[in-house]
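Page 37, continued from 36.
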């Protein structure tokens, strides 16, 4: 049996053991049937060409993460970034579900879970092993005050698997700001699936912060569906760990949808990051702008695959994709692949990517002014991503991100 076949068998067994009778039983069962038919991701598949999953042979797909102990120190790991804090520990809700006016926060149920098919093998594994999930739902024409800070805290001493599920539904004319924050440590695999539905004329400010420790693993799926005249502003920040893979799929389903998506990823030491972004312009007269910046040092490996898909009837589409990258050492590696797939002539599209080293002249200038090498590199690295950070709307998140990413440099 090959490693991929063994990991596939472990995944199916993990999902089979998660089957039990409750409101989500039917969804789990359907996902398990699908999971059995899918091949396990491996490098011979184009989408996984640069990312191997041998790290999972340590046992992350063989057991579910245990409940956190009562003395687990969660509070000290959570920065104060929002007005409404909700914590999910190893896949299980801890504490109450406070909700500001105009927003309901409830556990996912058979009636509320979205039926949209997951895009990937691990998306189906997420549904097949799902026991707990959260639903955020706004009221029509209401601007929800403050920031909702959702923390997914996953921690373990031995290899295991944690399922995190988040569903956000914005009603027509509503506005919401959400931080989706992943924290934790240990050889635990976070398998996260977030599905966002932006209703007509709604506004969403979304932060996806991945700040787990270097010894953890994370495979995430983010799916966004936009309706007429909706606006989604999504910032995704991440530092490398043993394995980090993010699949982002956006569908602009009705005219006037607007998407601003930006990201910063930093891979140091022997860490690995792989971002796959797919933005589909299904309807006419939609606008999307993607700006991602990556930094890799030591033996770090970073991958970026950005795709813009203009459908046949999506005339008047305006789409842009930019991925700029910086290498801090000769051993680091960044693989960037921008893609355009266009089936309509009446569109405006642009894409580009760059990969270079830190400017030796700028580094020399800072050193000649008495700044030590480490501080000089941190200053230049922070300056490289500042454009992305300054575009973030909320000051508390922006200040935290600047310090956190600065520490990675």
């Amino acid at each position: 049996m090959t490693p991929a076949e063994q990991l596939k068998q472990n995944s199916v067994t993990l999902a089979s053991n998660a089957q039990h009778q409750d409101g989500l039983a039917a969804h789990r069962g359907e996902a398990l049937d699908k999971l059995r038919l899918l091949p396990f991701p491996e490098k011979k598949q184009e989408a996984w060409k640069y990312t191997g999953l041998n790290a999972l042979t340590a046992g992350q797909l063989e057991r579910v993460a245990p409940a956190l102990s009562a003395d687990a120190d969660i509070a000290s790991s959570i920065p104060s970034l929002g007005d409404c804090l909700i914590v999910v520990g190893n896949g299980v809700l801890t504490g109450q579900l406070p909700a500001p006016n105009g927003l309901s926060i409830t556990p996912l149920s058979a009636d509320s879970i979205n039926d949209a098919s997951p895009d990937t093998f691990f998306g189906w594994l997420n549904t097949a092993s799902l026991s707990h999930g959260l639903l955020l739902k706004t009221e029509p024409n209401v601007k929800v005050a403050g920031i909702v800070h959702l923390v997914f805290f996953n921690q373990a001493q031995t290899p295991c698997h944690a399922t995190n599920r988040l569903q956000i539904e914005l009603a027509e004319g509503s506005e919401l700001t959400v931080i989706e924050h992943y924290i934790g440590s240990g050889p635990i695999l976070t398998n996260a699936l977030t599905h966002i539905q932006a209703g007509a004329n709604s506004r969403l400010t979304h932060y996806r912060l991945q700040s787990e420790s270097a010894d953890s693993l994370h495979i995430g799926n983010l799916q966004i569906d936009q309706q007429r005249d909706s606006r989604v502003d999504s910032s995704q920040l991440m530092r490398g760990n043993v394995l980090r893979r993010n699949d982002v799929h956006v569908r602009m389903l009705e005219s006037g949808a607007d998407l601003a998506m930006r990201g910063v990823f930093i891979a140091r030491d022997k860490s690995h990051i792989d971002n796959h972004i797919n933005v589909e312009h299904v309807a006419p007269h939609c606008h999307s702008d993607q700006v991602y910046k990556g930094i890799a040092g030591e033996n770090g490996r970073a991958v970026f695959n950005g795709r813009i898909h203009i459908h046949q009837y999506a005339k008047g589409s305006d789409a842009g994709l930019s991925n700029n990258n910086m290498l801090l050492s000769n051993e680091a590696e960044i693989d960037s692949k921008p893609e355009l797939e266009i089936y309509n002539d009446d569109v405006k599209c642009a894409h580009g990517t760059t990969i270079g080293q830190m400017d030796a002249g700028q580094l020399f200038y800072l050193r000649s002014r008495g700044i030590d090498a480490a501080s000089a590199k941190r200053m230049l690295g922070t300056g490289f991503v500042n454009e992305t950070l300054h575009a973030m709307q909320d000051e508390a998140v922006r200040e935290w991100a600047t310090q956190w990413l600065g520490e990675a440099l």
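The CA atoms of residues 187 and 216 lie 5 Å apart. Flag for discussion at group meeting. The chain has a mean pLDDT of 93.
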